Amino acid sequence: MHDLRYLRSHRAEAEAAFARKNVQLDLDTFYQIEEERVALLGAVEELKRQRNEASEEIGRRKRQGLDAADLLAAMRGVSDQVKEQEARLEHLESRVTEMARWMPNFPHQSVPAGTGSDDNVQVAAWGEPPRFDFAPQPHWEIAERLRLIDFTRGPKLAGSGFPLFWGRGAQLVRALVQLMLDLHTTRHGYTLVHPPIAVLSDCLEGTGQLPKLADDMYRLEGEDLWLNPTAEVPVTNIFRDEILEPGALPLKLTAYCPSFRREAGAYGKDTRGIVRLHQFDKVELVRFCLPERSYDEHEALRRDVEDVLQALEMPYRVMLLCGGDLSFAAAKCYDFEAYAAGEGRWLEVSSCSNFEQFQARRAGIRFRREAGAKPEVAGTLNASGIALPRTVIALLENGQQADGSVRLPQALVPYMGGVGVLRPEN
């Protein structure tokens, strides 16, 4: 949520920012209503001042035995006006708040212009895509041959888009999660949390998924609960409507949490395998910081993600998202794309975002710089550290060998019980 006072005094900046995000908003109506609201607020405060003065004068006259009938009549008239105007003010505030809910965060000045993914800019790369002396296979063929994923029985349980990992495949998922959590807690200094899978609407409002993404999420019927669309939501909202005391920032949290999204496909695209799913696993990284430190924290968060990808020996590239491809809440975002050799393409495995104070203002996350100081709005950031389905794809497709087996990166071997090569099992 934006600071309404800032929006009032920076209309040109707001219009330019929303245009850079390729968002169409009726700002004329918003500013008209906001101007009326501010004027009415001043009028109501003036009426209340008059009412208070009349009340004091009535008290004074009564103490002196003087008649106050005229003031009592006048005060009743003022009170009626206050009641009427406050009802109008409440209506205007509701309209302004509802319109502000749909206003995305401003993109940072370093974000390139553009309308979609084709306009994103590569800013870094690591590793070389593997080359084979045989025709590489896509991950679904590898997974079926090695009995890592059961593509037939999975849909029997929950329909399409809900994977059933099997045997070594299930072990691989657990190994990846534990490797990442160990890396982030022991090397990167994150505190491990284990949040609920279901979240309240207020949490989704706080991080910016509501109202825009309501149709992309699963809501529990008859409850004000939603299945977690990304662990960013429960972890960020741990401190919703709280004031963090001096010394609490910066704060770094990591969590594993299964996540859910309704829109798993895009007009028939990626219907095979596990590129797009309704349920997916990932490890989340969330940072809370002093607002003026958010871009230093963003670069540090980016290094944490790169550390995971390098530990997994996974060739990747880092894309700086253009304004039109940024999420609703992000001011700046790096996408990490891992190379998948079987399909010969890059797959997004992490988004590393700086929200500046946008989420914290919506969620009421504040802090004090020193004891007794006025509370300020914190900065928040998050990244996938990293998402599993496409990580599994890249590991299988890049690690495949001529005999049909798959070589695993050395860092995973201890988490796989010493198994460094996946082979067909009886």
Q: Features of this protein?
A:
Helix Hairpins; 2 domains; alpha+beta; eight-stranded mixed beta sheet; 12 helices; BirA Bifunctional Protein, domain 2; three-stranded mixed beta sheet; about 425 residues
Offer a quick outline of the entry.
By secondary structure, the protein is an alpha+beta fold. It has helices at residues 4-9, 11-20, 27-63, 69-101, 139-145, 154-158, 168-187, 201-207, 232-236, 294-311, 358-363, 388-399; strands spanning 121-126, 191-193, 198-199, 226-227, 242-244, 251-260, 279-289, 316-320, 332-340, 345-354, 365-367, 376-377, 379-387, 406-407, 421-422.
Supply the number of helical segments.
12
Q: Could you name the CATH homologous superfamily of the largest domain?
A: Bira Bifunctional Protein, Domain 2
What's the CATH architecture name of the largest domain? 2-Layer Sandwich
Number of strands: 15
Secondary-structure-based class equals: alpha+beta
What's the helix-strand series?
A: HHHHEHHHEEHEHEEEHEEEHEEEHEE
Q: What helical percentage do the residues reach?
A: 25-40%
Unreliable sequence segments = none
Describe the structure in your own words.
The protein has helices at 4-9, 11-20, 27-63, 69-101, 139-145, 154-158, 168-187, 201-207, 232-236, 294-311, 358-363, 388-399, and strands at residues 121-126, 191-193, 198-199, 226-227, 242-244, 251-260, 279-289, 316-320, 332-340, 345-354, 365-367, 376-377, 379-387, 406-407, 421-422. The chain has 426 residues and is an alpha+beta fold. It folds into two domains: 4-101, Serine-tRNA synthetase, tRNA binding domain (Helix Hairpins); 117-422, Bira Bifunctional Protein, Domain 2 (BirA Bifunctional Protein, domain 2, 2-Layer Sandwich), CATH 3.30.930.10. Strands 1-8-9-10-13-7-6-2 form an eight-stranded mixed β-sheet. Helix 3 runs antiparallel to helix 4 and helix 5 (139-145) packs across helix 12 (388-399). The longest helix is centred in the N-terminal third of the chain and has 37 residues, at 27-63. It is elongated and about 105 Å long.
